[in-house]
Amino acid sequence: MGRLSSIIMLGLTFFIAASSYGQTRRDVFQPGEQLVYKVKYGPIKLGTVVIQTGQPTADGTLPAHMVLWSADNPFVHTKTEVTDQFDRRDLTLRRFEEHSQNGDQKYDKYMQYDPKAKTITYSDETVTNKVTPDANAYDDALGIFMNMRAWNDVAIGHKYLFHVRSKDGEKPVTLEFTNQTSNESVPALDDKEIRTRVINGMMDLGGSAPLGADGAFTAYLSDDAASVPVRIDMSIAVGHISLVLDKIKRNDWTANK
């Protein structure tokens, strides 16, 4: 996978242990909602991310689907599809499926969490049904995206700690729900400015992250009942890579100006 696509997909290589806090998450998710983001480095378009929320299922899970594909340029040719099933009670991950293609190479990953047995079963090209015992419930990058929305404006002034598990072991992730607001121009709303709340994040990526990424990111979520992320900036060695909301499909969303 190329360096540009690697930094875009960095969060998808981790599972993030969810924590419990005194506040109560908000139910901001609408079945059929679709968010389309342009991935950009300054004026340069790197790719597109589409995130869709599905219909809640009879077993109490909430499905979500994400597709990422690179822009048509000579440096990056990738496409990744992720399908998650979250427990609606706490937005922790129950099932995970990822299919990626980089040129002629294809990669598949599967994960299932059993909350009763407290086991994670994982498969990819190198392992089949690897079981991790005594495991707590986890989230992935899409789950963190959803948790930011659910905690936005509920957890103002609080800093929440998560733990990342990768092949290199556990690493911390911090989400700081600040009391800051920012007026942001939103392409999905014909570049109108809306009021957003600011969330600062930090993920320990170690010393081998592509493009000099240090794990820092800042998210801007609409200051309203929908808590729509309108921009996410991920810090790299020079500047940042941004996910910018380009299109939205959601009923009855009126953003605060």
Question: What do you see in this structure?
Answer:
With 257 residues, the chain is mainly β. It has one domain: YmcC-like fold (Beta Barrel). Helix content is 7%, strand content 52%. The chain has a 16-stranded antiparallel β-sheet. Strand 6 and strand 7 form a beta hairpin. The protein is globular. It starts with a helix and ends in an 8-residue tail after the last strand.
Regarding CATH, which class?
Answer: Mainly Beta
Q: Which H/E pattern describes the elements?
A: HEEEEEEEEEEHEEEEEE
- Give the radius of gyration: 18 Å
CATH structural architecture: Beta Barrel
Structural class: mainly beta
pLDDT < 50 runs, ≥5 residues: 1-14
Count all strands and give the number.
16
Order of the strands making up the biggest sheet: 9-8-7-6-5-4-3-2-16-15-14-13-12-11-1-10
> Could you say how many structural domains there are in total?
1
Compute the separation of the termini in Å: 40 Å
Question: What topology does this entry show?
Answer:
Blueprint: H1 3-8, E1 15-17, E2 34-41, E3 44-53, E4 61-70, E5 78-87, E6 93-102, E7 105-114, E8 119-123, E9 130-132, E10 138-139, H2 141-151, E11 158-166, E12 169-186, E13 192-203, E14 216-222, E15 229-235, E16 240-249
Antiparallel strand pairs: 1-10, 1-11, 2-3, 2-16, 3-4, 4-5, 5-6, 6-7, 7-8, 8-9, 11-12, 12-13, 13-14, 14-15, 15-16
